[in-house]
Each structure stands twice: as structure tokens, then as C-alpha cells.
Amino acid sequence: MLSKSKIFFKGTAAVLPHMLSVIPFGIITGAIGVELGFDPILVYATSLIIFGGASQIIFMQLLSGGASTLVAITSVGVINSRHLLYGAVLSEYLEKLSFIKKLFISYFIVDQGFAESNKYIKQNKNLPNPHYYILGTGVTLWLCWQLSTISGIILGSFIPEELGLKFAIPLTFLALIVNDLRKLDHVFVMLVSGFASLILFDTPFKSYIILSPIVALIAAFIMLRLKK
Amino acid sequence: MSWFSILISGIVTYFSRMAMVALIDREMLGAKVKEVLNYVPAAVFPAIIFPGVFFNDFGSLVQITDPKIYGAIIALVVGFFSKNVIATIFSGLLSYWFIIFIILK
Asked: Residues A223, A190: one domain?
């Protein structure tokens, strides 16, 4: 049987490749906040308190552009609402934990951590203490995110823009779904989501980020109905 | 940007992480819902991938010959055959760099 720390570090190892996008993205987030003229302490506070890459950048950009606090907060809420879906999936593995532990682990639920944990736990159904794996992914991503935003705040955006590392973001997300590319039903749902996001891209508050998954999940629901 | 706005945004975000884990009893979710939840990764991530590949920084569609599209196709093919996270990311990034630094220079 695997020890708790072994499971934790398996989670850590699983998210390491994603650092290729997480670290530059964190640096950019910190640097943008300072460039927009915000107090460095407040910029860092977004990483600690909000802890959600894209939403932090949008939040700061909106506020510096003169948007109301309500609009900025709404955007953060809309962009981050996708975590509701991650939570619904992960709750299966966290069911037996105490309420306090659930509250603690929830803070560390992030895109890449969710996807890697879900993949691993599904393949290893008898894994004892699967929450250590989830924590391993989440804590690692959290730590790298904190350190990289801090370095962006202090050093500015020191990664040359010509490298186009922004492109690493769609690539890491692509890497999260390669396991399902052989399953036609999953590919169908992916295509619905992808095309929906292109059509809905201009919706207010960046709501395409949650509207496209909803459209895709409805399509999945209909597909399952028709299959029966 | 005030402490207040950050704090409220943080609470809203934390709630989105915590609600389904700590507040919802799984018994409340029907069998159909659980089945649909299998598709969450397939439903969420393309909505981040597609705009990242097909839109530029100004929010308009890129040309069909954009290096990002070639990079994404190569990453997709490598990912399909290797099922490997590192191979997918690196193949996409390296082919993208090859195009912008060697072919287009």
C-alpha cells in the first residue's frame, strides 16, 4: 500500500510538466498588476486570496480600465464558476473526509490539478487516500503560482515576449485531454465546447468560459439519452 | 483595486471551489448527472484551448496559416499517439518556435 506522502508526491510529479505554462503565466500576472500601477501588496493578495490565474488578470485589467467593482467581481465569479464542475467530479473521492478537511482541500482545486487527479484516480480505483493525490497536485500548483507571481511583481516580466509562451496555456490544457482523444463520445463533447467558445467568445464577463461547458454538457446529456 | 474587492472576489472563488465538495451530498446527484460529469474535462478545457489557438491578443480570429494552428495540430497528433503530457506540450511549443524563429525569420 502506498504511503500518504508517496501519494502526495505522485500528485506533485503529475503536475510538474504544467509548470511550463504556470510559471510564465504567474510571472506575467504579477508583472501586469504592477505595470497597471497597483500596490504590489494588493497584486500579490490576488494570488493568495483569489488564486485563479486568468481571473486575476481580468480583475486587475477591468479595475484599472475604470470598470466598477461589481463588474470586476462578477467577471471573477463567472470565470471561476467552472470550479463548481471540478468540485462535483472530485466530491466522489472526497466524500468520506471530515467537513473541515473538505474546506481545506477545496482551496487547492485548480484546473491542472483537477484534471491530473481525476485521470489518475479513475485509473487507480483502489488508491487509498486519494485526497493526498489531489492535495499533491493542488499544493504544488499553489506554491509555484505564489512564487512566480511574486517574482513577476519584483522583477517585472523578465521572460521575453517574443517567445510567445502564452501559447503554452492552450497547450497544457490540450495535454489534459489527450487521454480521451480516442473516445468518440468525448471528442464530440470537446468539439461542441470548442466551437461554442469561438461563437460565444464576445459574451460579457468572459462568460463563454462557463457557457461553452454548459452547452457541451447539455450535448453530452442528449447524446447519452439517444444512445439508450 | 481595494482589499474589499479582492476579498469578495476571493470569497466568490473559494465558494465555487468548495460548494460541490463540502455542501452538496452526492446522494442528491442522480445517476444521469453523475454520468454527464464524466465529460467535465471534455466540456471545460476546449473552451480554453480553442480561443487560445484561434484568437489573437486583440480578440479577432487568426489566419488559417497562423503558427499557433500548426503548433496545436502537431501537439494534437503527438498527444493522440503518445498520450503523454510532456510530449504534447513540448512538441507544440517546439514546432511553434521552429516556425516563428526559423521558418519565418
From this structure: yes
Using one digit for the tens of pLDDT, what is the confidence trace for A147-157?
999 999 999 87
A41/A127 same-domain check? yes
* Domains contained in chain A, number: 2
Residues B89 and A168: beta-carbon distance below 8 Å: yes
Domain holding A157, by residue range, is 4-164
> Which of B7, B32, B72 has the CB atom closest to A174's CB atom?
B72
Put simply, the chain A residues between 164 and 203 with a CB less than 8 A from any chain B CB are 164, 166-182, 185-187, 189-198, 201-202
At a CB cut-off of 8 Å and minimum separation 6, what does A66 contact?
Answer: none
Residue A170 lies in a domain: no
For residues A126 and A197, membership in a common domain is answered with no
- Interchain proximity B35–A49, CB inside 8 Å: no
- pTM of the predicted model as reported, rounded to 2 decimal places: 0.92
Q: Please answer yes or no on whether B40 and A88 come within 8 Å at the CB atom.
A: yes
Of A17, A177, A220, the CB nearest to B36: A220
Separation between Cα atoms, residue A106 and residue A102, nearest integer Å: 6
| Same-domain check for residues A124 and A212 | no
For the four alpha carbons of A155, A159, A162 and A168, in that order, the dihedral sign comes to negative
For residue range A40-75, list pLDDT tens digits in order: 999 999 999 999 989 999 999 999 988 899 999 999
Name the residue of chain A whose CA is nearest to B53's CA: A170
